[in-house]
Design brief:
The chain contains ten helices and 13 strands. The chain has helices spanning about 10-20, 40-45, 80-90, 105-115, 130-140, 150-165, 195, 210-220, 255-265, 315-330; strands at about 1-5, 25-30, 70-75, 95, 125-130, 145, 170-180, 200, 230-235, 240-250, 270-275, 290-295, 305-310. The radius of gyration is 20 Å and the shape is globular. Bound molecules: NADPH dihydro-nicotinamide-adenine-dinucleotide phosphate (NDP) and N-acetyl-L-glutamyl 5-phosphate (X2W).
């Protein structure tokens, strides 16, 4: 059994980590922090965890995280970078669900996140936590930068085409939609029921921080110069993410060969389901599960491939992926504790 701590246990990705880790056979939850709820039993705040988690929240300055084998940071950007150096020095592995270690370039991080980076010495070492494209680095890592939710869909959707060199890498387009839980549990006007329900809007059209993350990682993984136009939208559902990705073919290729490319790429990926050509994956087919589903389309058999990708933003887009990384880091089977089937309806 490994001892696990969670910093930021009162947020959506924090409670999702608790849901996944409480029944995990190799995990003993040892510390769950909250600045505001010090001393409150976790199950008093989240009754769904009654009988599963008997710990109380402790304030981050009281929790002895150095006792843990691994600490998850389910916190806003800037928190993990302040504590990771000390934890790593004490031999504790760190998995950050925020963006502190996702961008290798400090200046790019500071430009998009508008905070100074206080642990730039760790940027190079951090392993990007996308197991399907970076499994070997994750297995050896002591520090994981868990990907953003949108970047997970975009990278897994575009990667097989880029790797095969059959699309124009400089002109990728991603039209993505997220459920409101993607914005977190903190109180904000934009996520009030009367603002976000019965409503639909784009945001970040002139620049979203997931564009540099996705482009930089795809560039690293495929060694190609990537140009990406990404527009996120907020949809009136709680969980779920849908990406409609467009790529221009630069050569003649059959639909069967396109499909075979994706099936071969993800044959051994337990959490990527390549659906039949022309299928329409639904977000609810992933709700509560760590599955990401992909389907390919070719309108009018033209030279544009449309890739549809769905996932649960809180599971494969955040906490499930983080647990998948933890399993790899500690040598557990990759799917341990992650076999939940999606919830329907
Ligand atoms: N929601 C999603 O779908 C996804 C989120 N992420 C990323 O994961 C991280 C967490 O997101 P989410 O759970 O949605 O956020 P929430 O706003 O729901 O939760 C944030 C948590 O962080 C704690 N916290 C806030 N500030 C501090 C601080 N200075 N020190 C210690 N703890 C702090 C809060 O607890 P308290 O105030 O009680 O201390 C709370 O538990 C973010 O970086 C987000 O960008 C990534 C992918 C998807
Ligand atoms: C709906 C919504 O607001 N979604 C968030 C992304 C959530 C996420 O992946 O977070 P980080 O990359 O910041 O960790 C957003 O667009 O900012």
């Amino acid at each position: 059994m490994i001892k696990v701590g969670i910093v930021g246990g009162t947020g959506y990705t924090g409670v999702e980590l608790l849901r996944l880790l409480a029944p995990h056979p190799e995990v003993q939850l040892t510390a769950i922090t909250s600045r505001k709820e010090d001393g409150l039993p976790v199950a008093d705040m989240f009754p769904s965890l009654r009988g599963h988690v008997d710990l109380a929240f402790s304030s981050p300055d009281k929790a002895d995280l150095t006792e843990c084998d691994v600490v998850f940071f389910a916190t806003p950007h800037g928190v993990a970078m302040a504590q990771a150096p000390e934890l790593l020095a004490a031999g504790v592995k760190v998995i950050d669900l925020a963006a502190d270690f996702r961008l290798k370039d400090q200046a790019t991080f500071e430009k998009w996140y508008k905070i100074p980076h206080t642990a730039p010495q760790l940027l190079e070492e951090a392993a990007y936590g996308l197991p399907e494209l970076n499994r070997e680095e994750i297995q050896k890592a002591r520090l994981i930068a868990n990907p953003g939710c949108y970047p997970t869909t975009m990278q897994l959707g575009f990667y097989p085409l880029l790797k095969a060199g059959i699309v124009d890498a400089g002109n990728l387009i991603a039209d993505c939609k997220s459920g409101v839980s993607g914005a977190g549990r903190k109180a904000e006007i934009g996520t009030l029921f009367s603002e976000s329900s019965d409503n639909f809007k784009a945001y970040g059209v002139h620049g979203h921080r997931h564009t540099p993350e996705t482009a930089a990682q795809l560039q690293r993984f495929t060694e190609q110069q990537v140009g990406l136009l990404f527009t996120p939208h907020l949809v009136p559902m709680i969980r779920g993410m849908h990406a409609t990705l467009y790529a221009r073919l630069n050569q003649d290729i059959s639909n069967e060969a396109l499909q075979a490319l994706f099936e071969a790429q993800y044959r051994d990926a337990e959490f990527v389901d390549v659906m039949p050509f022309g299928a329409h994956p639904e977000t609810r087919s992933t709700r509560g599960s760590n599955m990401l589903r992909i389907a390919l389309h070719r309108p009018d058999n033209g030279n544009t491939v449309v890739i549809l990708v769905v996932q649960d933003n809180l599971v494969k887009g955040a906490s499930g992926q983080a647990v998948q990384c933890m399993n790899l880091m500690f040598g557990f089977p990759e799917s341990t504790g992650l076999k939940q089937i999606a919830l329907l309806p």
